[in-house]
Amino acid sequence: MLKFLRSLVPTRPAASPEETSPTLVPATHVTAPGAPDFDIAAHLVEANGLPVADWEAVRAWVGTLAEGDAQDKAWSDCEIAWLGHLRAGLGAGYRLDQQGQVVLLSSLDTHVAKATIAFVDKTLQRIQRVLEGVAQPAQGQEILIVFDDDETYYRYLGHYYPDAGEFAGSGGVFIHAGCCHFATVKADLRAIEPVIAHELTHSCLSHLPIPAWLNEGLAVNTEQRLCPPPPNTFGNRPSPQQMHARHLRFWGEAEIQQFWSGKSFLRNDEGHELSYDLARILVSQLAADWERFRPFALAADAADGGDAAAREHLGVPLADLAAALLEQPRDARWAPAPARWHGAPERGAF
């Protein structure tokens, strides 16, 4: 995934009262007409020293309200209430900023925070145009949490990962667990922009049960389209020919099943990088014919790696696509085989 973001922005000066959030005291209850108040403080879970809401309890309470605007507002109010508690847990330097449907929790300088929010809003609109008919905003608000350092970032993410195992590092992640939100580490805004574009794409795809390779392939291609890196950043990167040679050496029967199930994206060796690159190549080629690709993306299911949707909407099994890219004879062994997967398939947005 993206490299760590380490170039910190200048320290934020003291904010004036009108620049700060309305109150520094986190709300303990959320109100909604026609329903008992929801005790948000009583439904917080301690996650490595930081508060995370019990979103199942939130969803159950919201479900007692009339469908439509009442539920949407109650859900958003619970998101803001939780973020208030998280802000308190992170320390006095953090601040909540909101504009429209975009909410930012960070210690960024006020002007940088405003620019970040504006970029999120603009990028959200651009993603929906680029992925027309596939992308749509997630429920609630678009929430970005910018942590001050790697230690806090990974401490927070630890709540969403299994206790056992080693996992690849990241500079940003979309969290699809209860309240959808994405997180990154403080950096120069230009360094954060690709992370925002990547993770916001995941947010806009969160309504679909797509497999990890499709999710990540769409996110990488959209990121590169909206935030292309400067030409001089490619100097130390492998050439396309070198990457192709690495793909030919790495992928075998076992590894391709990890790719279709999404597990290879969690490897802590070169399989991590190659998974993202293979997903990028697959999606780039398939999406060239958007009118055929769009119904495929809408129908693809992580349960079978998207194979049934590929056969129906693209007219080709995924085994043939993989074999062609990896210069292998057409063989059913390259097809997704859920019976051989270890555990449930991944949805991506790592």
Description:
- With 350 residues, the chain is of the alpha/beta class.
- It contains twelve helices and nine strands.
- It folds into two domains: 17-207, Zincin-like (2-Layer Sandwich), CATH 3.30.2010.30; 231-340, no CATH class.
- Helix 3 packs across helix 5 (189-205), helix 5 crosses helix 6 (212-226) and helix 6 (212-226) packs across helix 9 (270-286).
- The longest helix is centred in the first third of the chain and has 22 residues, at 69-90.
Report the CATH topology name of the largest domain.
Zincin-like
CATH class of the largest domain: Alpha Beta
Q: Termini distance?
A: 9 Å
Order of helices and strands: EEEEHHEEHEHEEHHHHHHHH
How many helix segments?
Answer: 12
Alpha-beta content class: alpha/beta
Strand content: 5-15%
What's the number of extended β-strand segments? Answer: 9
Largest beta-sheet details? 5 strands, mixed
Q: Ranges with pLDDT <50 over ≥5 residues?
A: 1-23
Helical content (DSSP H or I, runs of 4+): 40-55%
What is the gyration radius calculated from CA atoms? Answer: 21 Å
Strands of the biggest beta sheet: in what spatial order?
5-6-7-9-8
Q: Tell me, what's the shape? A: globular
Average predicted confidence as pLDDT: 88
The CATH architecture category of the largest domain equals 2-Layer Sandwich
- Please tell me the total number of domains: 2
